[in-house]
Description:
- This protein has 259 residues and is an alpha/beta fold.
- The protein has helices spanning 59-76, 97-111, 129-137, 150-157, 165-173, 201-214, 238-250; strands at residues 10-16, 20-26, 82-86, 116-121, 140-144, 180-184, 186-188, 218-222, 233-235, 255-258.
- The strands form two sheets. The chain has an eight-stranded mixed beta sheet with strand order 1-2-3-4-5-6-8-10. Strands 7-9 form a two-stranded antiparallel sheet.
- Helix 1 links the parallel strand 2 (20-26) and strand 3 (82-86).
- The radius of gyration is 18 Å and the shape is globular.
- The two termini are 21 Å apart.
Amino acid sequence: MSTVIYPSPIFGPVHSRRLGVSLGINLLPADGKVCTFDCIYCECGFNRDHRPTRPLPTREEVAAALEARLRDMQANGPAPDVLTFAGNGEPTVHPRFAEIIDDTIRLRDRYFPEARISVLSNSTQLHRPDVHAALMRVDNNILKLDTVCPRYIAAVDRPTGTYSVDDVVAGMKAFGGHVIIQTMFMKGTSDDGHNVDNTGEDYVAPWLETVREIGPQSVMIYTIDRETPDHGLRKATREELDAIRDRVLAAGIPCTASY
């Protein structure tokens, strides 16, 4: 099994299928994974296999490392299209997340004012007012919604604490359209025997209806790109993703598909 554990607090830039030249900001330890999900498709592996021993980077460490890297990119290139909060787990669990967003906006405006700030989140912390307010301040508030089926979420996304998809959807609606929904579509059977195919009508139709209700600025659908810790998973086909994308577009919502 090949997993990706990212440096912290800054990594890249990398070329993102969806975002372009992306400078990564990892608010989790560099030696492990901290996440409120334990997705069977996560490129960082299962939570149990990557318990960190180092602390979270401090707000001051993140700002200093980010400024140093932006200064170097300003002098030597490449120019980033986006500064992306991602890495070894869920970025919004950092207790200073909101202040770090403020620092990032300030540094972005100083060095690369045309770059966008993106947060890739699994949506589990939307109930926190500080997280909601911070996500309202970023350019790309990218929130996960793989399905609206609680059984599928329990088997595939595997929340580590209390989780309500109804509460998550309500949290997404509270952004008033300032949200990009990101959904993983895939096929296959998990190692413990669950059918994980969410490309069929039983999953797509209720998901699409919920997307309409949320009214996001756009939707990003994608499929497996790297090796997964669960070995029974398979990519959704290009034809399947295109068909789902076209249904979102027909609903009047911009949508991209990444294969």
